[in-house]
## 1
Amino acid sequence: MLVVVLPFPENRTVGTIDWIGSSYDHLGPLPARGDVEVPDGGEVALEIHPAAELDGHGGRTVESASVSWSPVDVRFLDQLPSDSITGLSITYAVQPGSLAALAHLAPGLRRLTLAWTDLTDEALPHLAMLRHLAWWQSFGNHFSDAGVQQLVALEELDHLYLEEATLTLAGFAFARRLERLCRLGVQDAMLSKRDLKTLRRQLPGVDVG
């Protein structure tokens, strides 16, 4: 089997790495630290979160415990092969200015989760470069109605969960131009029952809720 080496930082664990059919399934995901070998062309998922390596199970298990919760610097992403990561999940605040490295993964990235990442509109031009995304979920950020219109560039999206408390009905205007969209999640958005009805009328054939 051909493999690809993912060069993560040597001095810290930045999260966990996993893939379908991993031989480490019974041990849990691998720590994303140092050089990690993954199958070439496999569906590889990276979760970036505060992680502490444990000694048990051959050092293969990680947990979020006794770690720093300061914003993460994700500039290490631009050292990975650009088509090596299929799914990416970031589950805590990102250091301002480092998110530009995420665009490097655009050729391979299909799924993205941004949970409590504390991002603002400043991040959206970089996110709009992830042109092959099919699935997006975000919440706990500070996007504006005007800012998220840049996401119209993500033409391959079929599932979009833009669950941001800062958005109103106007923020979802761009969704009408996403021709492949079949599911739109709007939990936590500032939508009245009337707004929700309007949005469903504007997006026939899309499951909105």
## 2
Amino acid sequence: MTLARLHRWNVAALTLLVLFEITPGRAAAQELYGSVVGTVQDGSGARIPGATIEITNRETNLVLSTVSNDTGAYTFTNVLPGTYDVKVTLQGFKEFVQQQVPITAGSISRVDAKMEVGQLSESITVRSEVALLKTDKADTASAFSAKEVMDLPLPEFRNYQSLLDLVPGSTPSEFQNAEIDTPARALSTNINGTNRNTNSTRVDGATNQFTWLPHHTLYVAPAETIAEVNVSTGSFSADQGLAGGAAVTVITKSGTNQLRGSGFGYYTNQDLRAQSFFAKRNKTPKLPTNHHIDGGTLGGPVVKSKLFYFGAFEGQYRNTAGESIYTVPTEKMR
């Protein structure tokens, strides 16, 4: 086989691989989305069919609508994560509005509308509150919002995976391989006593796992690009297959109708680091260490309320010297 033919064959095989990788990923990536369910009732508690329900994304103005069924129930599936306003209308009743309903990946948000008799020009506005008890889904999960990812302390490499230490049933996360394998220093942990290799991580629906080191992820999303991290640790749904310990879903940010950007820089050196116990005892001077993490993000509308963009860059520079301390038997030990 000639080099040209081999090259064409490799390109064709890679194309097919990408196609096959993308297609089932979209079908199996239900954890990318959330759901909104609820009922429409009148003042006496009777269910109301035929009411129009609209949900509107507060960032992008995306509007989805449906109608309550014969039992007064409604369902929105495959809803992109974000904050939504829910509006319910029906002739002869006041308009019902519930604001700032959070939709997260893999979750079900319930909004039950209680309608009052009146004119459509009148409205009842309710501000959404976080439900204390989940009644629509039986999984055990923890979620971290973009604000929590940014506000909670992260280790030197600013890896969001360190937040898994806060999930009930987890062991302290640690880096266990060379940086040449995982340059972003992916962390691994055990969940509920299971093997660390049984954890499954997806980023925007795509499987993110190192084939030869399945306890590590191939890609660690920069903290500034993360919109949400959802960690399921029990009673997995069918769309979270391949997970035995934890099913970790990472959703990255998208553009909105507002032009928004950020820049960041983090720096540490030997003067900002503590000296180890043994180095102090042996009066070993601090070795030179320099570590920079710099980058930025930018997102906004391409076509307002229709098409958006979001991009990010993160670069790391690290220069460090190593030391080794050997202990030999003392005279008494001999």
## 3
Amino acid sequence: MPSLPRERRCSSWPGCRARPAPAASQRRIAAETARLDGLAQLPQQTAASLREQGVFSRLWVDTLENLVGVVEALGSGVFRGAVTDAEQRLRGKGNIFQLNDTADLFVAAGYTDLRTVIDGQRWQRLIEFWATRHVFTHNDGLVDDKFLNKVPSSTTRVGQRLTITEEHCRQAITDTDALCRALGALITP
């Protein structure tokens, strides 16, 4: 029988709680980097044509959406795997992907506050990336009050189109990697 990752191997055994796979989050983050690297390798003429069609912008938005998904999956898995009454604590809360809510859940369960583990500037950038993802996912790239509340230093106004760049995505990848490592470290002895 082929060897399965621990989180798949024991999930069917009674009493065995599936463990999150920080390594899986690292692979997904690496895939986002590889996708951006692949775009950078396109011939100039091809890249210019794709840029004009909005392909790059769409891929950059997808990158942010995927990074939020990585953190949501890892955060949920870590919390459910480490906190014995996780289901009770999560009841009525929906998905775990708002950063401050995630940090608060871990603190309430007796774990280190992620906001003290992650550098303050990095944490603020992560909040901005999550707010940017919200604008593109729920408002077609148009700034709303929720974005401005999360990113008070923004010079954009409600209704203005938000822009995203490759550099923005690469920073989001770096910061998300640090967050995932911090999440994984919460349960590492």
## 4
Amino acid sequence: MQHRTVGIVFLLIAVLLLTGCQAASATKEELFTFQNSYIGDNSSVGNLLQYLRNSEQLEHFELQTTEEPYGMELHYAAITGDQIEETAIFNATFIFALVQNAEWVTFHFDAQTYQLTRDDLQERYGKDLRSFSSEDAVKEAIEKLLENHREVEALLQD
């Protein structure tokens, strides 16, 4: 009887571990399930924002859909220092790569506001951001841009 209980407990732990590992690997590529989203699709954009950097600090967002160019405003709390610049560039790059008609994103942090446009970022990356085909490719491009502090400063000053 005791061996059966130990066996059942062991089996349950194994199932939980396997399920947890599968869920973690599934979320890594889930970001690109939002590819070809549009600003007018509030739930799709809202779900995408949950996967971006510092999403737990996102207080709310507003989609601007009344006239072109379409964009969004993101309001964050409790992000400071270098995290602000990294969050703005990381999130804007993914938004422009995945949301087809997003042309600008305004980031509101406690003490700072930045607006990034698709054109500005595409100029910095040297390519149409919608042409990225994987999360890893986007992250690699972002890391390369973030290494160039002058470029980051210039981008955020525009």
